[in-house]
Amino acid sequence: MTALALVSDYMSRDLITLSPDQEINRAAKILLDGNISGAPVVGPDGRLVGVLSKKDCLRAALEASYYRDWGRAVANYMSTPAETLDPSLDIVTACQAFLDSTYRRFPVVGGDRLVGQISRADILRAMSDNWG
User: pTM for the complete prediction?
Assistant: First the structure.
């Protein structure tokens, strides 16, 4: 029997990350310019502290429309704690995690460090490669 592919086999390793003290308007521009739905937020020690999505940025934009101030930090809007997947998780279990969640992507954390990110498309590609 062939071993199942792992999250580490299909995750993205070259990530756009944000910092918690970054201004939300700059972070929103990074997401828009990169055409990505969200990004991991990493503290100065390299540990994952949250995730910022375009939906989080919409919340900030709405708040800014009331107060005319875009200057707050990412930390005020990011989702925390971030739900993560382990790089050694098999793709079938990871697929179920996506089906049980509304998230489009999960940060991948090995030990206590961010090592990658995996998306729905990555899982679908893995499933297709293995059974397509």
Answer: 0.86
**Residue 66 has which token pair?**
């009331």
Residues 100-118, mean pLDDT to the nearest whole number: 92
CB atoms within 10 A of CB 125: 15
Mean pLDDT for the stretch of residues 56-83: 86
Report residue 4 as tokens: 């199942």
Give me 38's structure tokens: 């969200």
The stretch 97-106 carries a mean pLDDT of: 93
Question: Cis omega (within 30 of 0) on the bond before 81?
Answer: yes
Contact present, 7 and 118 (Cβ < 8 Å): yes
Amino acid identity at 85: L
